[in-house]
Amino acid sequence: MSTFVRLGKKVKHFAKAVLLPEPKCSVTYCRRIERVKTKERVCAMTFDDGPMGLPTSPDLFDGRCLTDVLLDTLSEFNAKGTFDVIGITADNYPDAAGAPGTPAWGGTAYDHYPAFEKDGFGGAVNCPQLMERIIREGHQITNHGYRHILFGKKSFVYGKRHTLGSLDKVLEDLEALDRLLRGQYGYPMTMSRPPHYVDRIDKNFTSYDAYEKMGYLYLAASFDGAGWLPAKSADPVQAEIDEMVEPMRKKLEEDPDFFCGQIIFQKDGYNMALRTPVAVGLRKQLELLDAAGYRVVTVQELLKRSPFADVGAEDPDFEAFRRLIDQGRAVAYSDNTLRPDTPMTCGEFAMLAAPRSAAVDDRLAKLQAGDRAYRSRYSGAMAWCKNQGLLPRQAKESAPLTAEVLSGAAELFGGTLPVEFTRRAVLRSYKTE
Ligand SMILES: [Zn+2]
Predict the structure, then answer these.
(1) Strands 263-267 and 223-224
(2) From ligand 1's centre to the CA of 195, what distance in Å?
(3) Going by C-beta distance under 8 Å and a sequence separation of 6 or more, which residues neighbour residue 421?
(4) Separation between Cα atoms, residue 49 and residue 145, nearest integer Å
(5) Is the bond into 51 cis (omega within 30 degrees of 0)?
(6) Predicted TM-score (pTM) of this structure
(7) Strands annotated E in 188-228
(8) How far lies 135's CA from each of 259, 296, 368, in Å?
(9) How far does the centroid of ligand 1 lie from the alpha carbon of residue 50, in Å?
(10) How far apart are CA 222 and CA 261, in angstroms?
(11) Residue 270 C-alpha to ligand 1 middle, in angstroms?
(12) Pick from 104, 149, 112, 123: which is nearest to 273 by CA?
């Protein structure tokens, strides 16, 4: 092979890996919720890495701990937060402290919350009163990992970090926190965000596989509430608060509807410089949102406006689409778009028709046993549909649906196949129980 061809291939590979990180998006049970489509002035806020039982920094609230300060502030505005909590980081040793102001501020090999060697003051395990208060006051709790360990490798910034590695280990970690919330508080969690948004898990699995197995949605965010990066300024405390407030003020001035359906990222803990600008910045953000007529609700509540990123209540088929989601069917893509006016493929139809156990559990079991035929996300559902005679044996998952391909599945449409095969037409005429 000539050097040029090799180089060309390398460039192409690089472009694929870096410039187009997720070229193919498939229909999944686990949708990544970044924002939802709504014209209503309602938005959500997520608070990562808490709860935190240490005072704010600087301490401006007479020693009151950060999570209590955030809860006091939310309550004053009748706002509901989504607390993306951890379990405990006390077992993440041996480790060495990193330099403040760098991504290793909380530890070199692991993260430690609220801070290095202060693991006893944070997380759901150590802060039962805070957990109870969060639940009692109507906020949502989501799973940010029991030990906040990266699911898989991430080069550059977190190259030296320990990872959970296998899908089994990731599931074990998520289940530990899930069990704690159910057992101690009777609280069922329904969403999760991976530590540092690292999706990759060993052996080509991703956080989507783990979340599908857990029955979770992927909690993302569309707007950075800021304050977590250290400011370099004569008055860093004020500068970090300004970082939280000014971008939001500007966005609202440009377009008062900017935050409709958005999810704002916040931190329930120290920032990289061991300060807590959120303790003051949150109030200022809520003042801005309040003045613009916004209500801050949980992500769960936000999803009631619309489960989708691209289709809202004004769509004529919205109720039909929503019914399918309410029944727990896989109808949207992993980026939470519905894309109603594109053609539906056989693989997407299989995800709609097959039971979750076939599409998720059977497929993951085959993959973990090393059966590479099940690498495609639709393979479990396709196999099930073929066995049931709903799709012909030779059907390819990427092929568009046709009347011929669907001839064995008319019953699923009340005996009459749709006249066209856009995703809209198929989803609309699919018969639900
Ligand atoms: Zn985190």
Answers:
(1) parallel
(2) 5
(3) 343, 344, 400, 401, 402, 403, 406
(4) 9
(5) yes
(6) 0.93
(7) 191-192, 200-201, 205-206, 217-219, 223-224
(8) 25, 16, 37
(9) 9
(10) 9
(11) 11
(12) 104
For residue 86, how far is its CA from the centre of ligand 1 (angstroms)?
8
pLDDT score of 5 more than 90 = no
Distances (CA, A) of 327 to 29, 37, 187, 356, 433: 11, 20, 21, 11, 9
Q: How far is the CA of 248 from the centre of ligand 1 (A)?
A: 22
The 10s digit of each residue's pLDDT in 194-246 is 999 999 999 989 999 999 999 999 999 999 999 989 998 999 999 999 999 99
Written as one letter, the residue type at 282 is L
Q: How far is the CA of 47 from the centre of ligand 1 (A)?
A: 9
Q: Which domains does the chain have, with CATH numbers?
A: 38-302 (3.20.20.370), 319-429 (no CATH)
Q: How far is the CA of 360 from the centre of ligand 1 (A)?
A: 27
Ligand 1 centroid, distance to 178 Cα (angstroms)? 16
What single-letter amino acid sits at 360?
Answer: V
Output the CA 117–ligand 1 centroid distance in Å. Answer: 17
284-341: per-residue pLDDT in tens?
Answer: 999 999 999 999 999 999 999 999 999 999 999 999 999 999 999 999 999 999 999 9
Q: With cut-offs at 50, 70 and 90, classify the pLDDT of residue 273.
A: very high
- Residues 387-426 have pLDDT tens digits of 999 999 999 999 999 999 999 999 999 999 999 999 999 9
Identify the DSSP state of 262.
B
13 and 237 Cβ atoms separated by less than 8 Å: no
Instruction: Pull the structure tokens for residue 391.
Output: 């799709």
Structure tokens at 57: 């920094």
Ligand 1 mean position, distance from CA 145 (Å): 8
209-235: b or e for each residue (b if 16 or more CB lie within 10 Å)? bbbbbbebbbbbbbbebbbbebbeeee
Examine the pLDDT at 10 and tell me if it is beyond 80: no
CA of residue 239 to ligand 1 center, whole Å: 23
